[in-house]
Amino acid sequence: MTRLCAVYGVTRAGYYAWRQRPESARSAQDRELQWRIQRLFQQHRGTYGSPRIQRALRAAGCAVSRRRVARLMRTAGLRARVVQIYRANPRLHRFYGQHPNRLWARVATRPDQIWVGDITYLPVGGRWRFLAVVLDQCSRRVLAWRLGRTRDARLTRGVLDAAVRRRHPGAGLIFHSDRGSEYAGHAFRDRLRALGIRQSATRGGTPGDNAHMESFFHSLKAEVIHGARFETERVLRLALRGYFRYYNNRRLHSALRYRAPADFEARVA
User: Fold this and answer.
1) Domain end point (choices 76, 98, 118)
2) Is 76 within 8 Å of 34 (Cβ atoms)?
3) H/E element holding 124?
4) Which of 5, 139, 194, 233 has its CA at 20 to 30 Å from residue 108's CA atom?
5) Predicted structure pTM score
6) What are phi and psi of 201, to 5 degrees?
């Protein structure tokens, strides 16, 4: 002990006085706060950084600064799991910024004004499955999803019909997607027309025009798919169902002022 005290330049009496000193109020608060941060971090699948953790704490009635949350997360070794699915291309982003989407100029101010849809590939047991999703552009809420073995109009019509049955949208709804045959073919276009929904599409070779869906699929793959292995379709469906429930009801979105889609819709309804 004498040698240790000498290394740190303290006296033996000072060391034992420090050992017997009661914990300060600030340290006790930090310990309790760190426990709450770790619990939130685990509840949100390790995807929340300090901004969302701080917002979640504030929503629970705990007033704390973002800097303090970041410090306690560093101390606990908590880092948000963020996966870069693709390499950013600044020149491409500048190009998109100079060429706004002319087919889809409106911005939704309420739910069920603009829906967006897209399809992505997901691996199952060494093969691919196709996930079609319909998202509300205003609230970012997942309205419907379908997982299929073929990428065709039956898949996109099925997910569209599911969204319509769930939401019963009024006249004037816009549905935006890319120009794939699953959306541009007569079968899908006729279905939109029969439902009284106006169609909008991205320009050729510009996936940035459907940015809301691109952002959603990036979050899905970063938080659920990347690093996981799904041996059966049933296991994948269970994982997707759980994530969409979490995404709609609990995941905070910075674009929604750090509210979950369901909470945002309840406030603007």
Assistant:
1) 76
2) yes
3) strand 114-124
4) 194
5) 0.72
6) -140, 155
